[in-house]
Amino acid sequence: MKKYRTRKGDGSFIELNENELKAELEQGTSDAADRGKISPLSKEELQYLFELFTYPSKFISVEMGNEVILSYDAATLKVRRVGVSTHRIQSLQVYEKLLGADMLEFDHVDYSIKPVKPIITFEQPELEQALLVTTLPLYYGAQPNLGLYNQPDGPCPNPGELYAAGKISEAQDSQEKAVEYAVSDMVQVGSEMYESGADGINFDTTGAAGDTDFLATLKAVEILRKKFPDMCIEVGMAGEFILGMHGGLSYDDVRLAGLYPHKQIELAQKAGVSIFGPVCNTKTDRSIPWNSARAVTYIKECVKNSKIPIHANMGMGVGGLPMVDHPPTDVVSRASKAMVEITRLDGL
Amino acid sequence: MGKEELFKQAMDAIISSDLKKAEEIAKKAIGEGIDPMELMSRGFRVGITRIGDLFERGEMFLPELIRSAEVMKSVSELIISALPEESREKSGVVLIGTVQGDIHDIGKILVASLLKANGFEVHDVGHDVSVETFIEKAQELNVDIIGSSALLTTTMKYQKDLEGELKRRDLRDRFKTMVGGAPVTQRWADRIGADAYGEDATDAVRRAFELLGKS
Predict the structure, then answer these.
(1) A162-173 pLDDT tens trace
(2) If 0-12 CB within 10 Å is exposed, 13-18 middle and 19+ buried, where does residue A54 land?
(3) Best residue of B19, B51, B53, B62 to probe chain A, by most A CBs closer than 10 Å
(4) pLDDT tens across B143-172, in order?
(5) Which H or E run includes A29?
(6) Of A179, A178, A202, nearest in space to A190 by CA
(7) How is residue A282 annotated by DSSP?
(8) CB atoms B106 and A153 under 8 Å
(9) Is A348 within a domain?
(10) In sequence order, what are the beta bridge partners of A138?
(11) Are the CB atoms for B142 and B114 separated by under 8 Å?
């Protein structure tokens, strides 16, 4: 039987025959449906994915007319991260003028709200300069990164150490305190950068420290929305479900721990988020067809539940793409086309 | 009550973090002459594995996991004390830490908790741990496994450095090494020569047992 070349979630090449490929796609969508308690992809959608992964070209794309918004989070870091020595503003110009970006984000190398706060007066004039030489919508972006509020980096007792010592309620109290600090910082940084001219604020990698991280973000968004009704606020996620590091936190009477993208979006909308960036994690020991089918299943349900634009994360280890620094174009183009044409989302 | 029912109750006691119930079952089983190790492997350990799976699916959260791990630890001590002295054996000794330059330790804490719950003696050396410290502590504590975690692509290289330094000091065969962390893969583990890679906390426990020939 003919073999089709694809990859595993760790980026290595594998070959699958027709039956194996179909089985991977079916198992991928079933896994998402089972975990998220949502519908799997239909037979037609699975057939469509099968055709994408058996198409002989290395690079494929969406049909004309199906193009979506393309944005880059942490854009000012990524050019320099690969060793290209550019200023942050030049990086933005590269993305805008050479890489076809539709939306961009200006950010600091620490990429977290807390360390930005004391240097905000240095960030504001840089952002203003960036705005003068770019034309596309420009966010200011950073992660809530609640971990930075814990000792030794912050004022709150370290919940990891408290949990390890069996001090569960103390660990939870500490996390609740961290939420208060983070909300205050997120509102301050968000307000000041918006008032400096940013077209919006992007709270990226939200939920990285679990339910506390997501709660802080929702609360900050709610305050910012009241303060600036026209402000564009994007929230990008860190993982496919909210880790229950506290376990008992809720927003609008909904327990946050364990929420999958189609439930996360409901709360994001209530808080006042303008654009939502869901995530599906890649399993590195499974194939890209398995991972792509799984990611599309989650995001499709999220789009279905959403009244606001959805810009799914597609990159290293998310969106069905391999966990490698530079995800290869063969699988990036297939997983992206699948994401756009099956889920009908608004951007990547 | 039949043996199978007792095993199921043991599993349920761990899942519901019920220390009193778990101890009652352990005492009852020992009193009835049931093999303590069978009770452990077919009852309590099934429960803690299930906890790990539920956590990995977002259906159980850290406080519950910690509580269940504590129950598991207590009941393990009870069962070990019922074994003849010559067969009282720990699952293994593990040194675990997050590598130099990396302060992320949520995943590492989860792995440490589940390893402890599965009878391993775990020494958590924290985060931002230098290669030097990993090796010194491993020697000092005479561990079986050195587990290193890295969340960043920029810090993964210290896992490779650890392998190299162990070789340079002629210590590589003395310890088994395990790697984990968000950007880490089996491919990376193979490339740097680590003995095992854990995809998540449950997988890490499985791999640790395999490494020590106790799966």
Answers:
(1) 988 889 999 999
(2) middle
(3) B62
(4) 999 999 998 888 999 999 999 999 999 999
(5) helix A18-36
(6) A202
(7) P
(8) no
(9) no
(10) A104
(11) no
Q: What is the spatial distance between Cα A139 and Cα A207, in angstroms, rounded to a whole number? A: 20
- Per CATH, the number for B92-211 is 3.40.50.280
Which residue range(s) make up the domain with A114? 3-343
- List the CATH number of the domain containing A89: 3.20.20
A242 token code pair: 């909210």
What percent of chain A shows pLDDT beyond 70? Answer: 100
The domain spans of chain B are 3-87, 92-211
Nearest residue in B to A317, CA atom: B183
Site of tokens 């990285």: A208
d(CA A330, CA B150): 28
Structure tokens at B51: 């906890």
Residue B72 has a CB neighbour count (10 Å cut-off) of 27
Structurally, chain A folds into a number of domains equal to 1
**CB-based contact A31:A285 (threshold 8 Å):** no
Within 8 A by CB and 6+ apart from A177, the residues are A149, A155, A156
Reply yes or no on whether the pLDDT at B104 is more than 90.
no
Phi first, then psi, for residue B151 (nearest 5°) are -95, -20
Instruction: State mean pLDDT over A61-67.
Output: 95
Class level of CATH domain B3-87: mainly alpha
Tell me the shortest Cα–Cα distance from B114 to chain A, in angstroms.
11
Residue A58 in 3-state DSSP?
A: coil
- Residue count of chain A: 348
Q: What do you get for the CA distance between the two ends of chain B, in Å?
A: 29
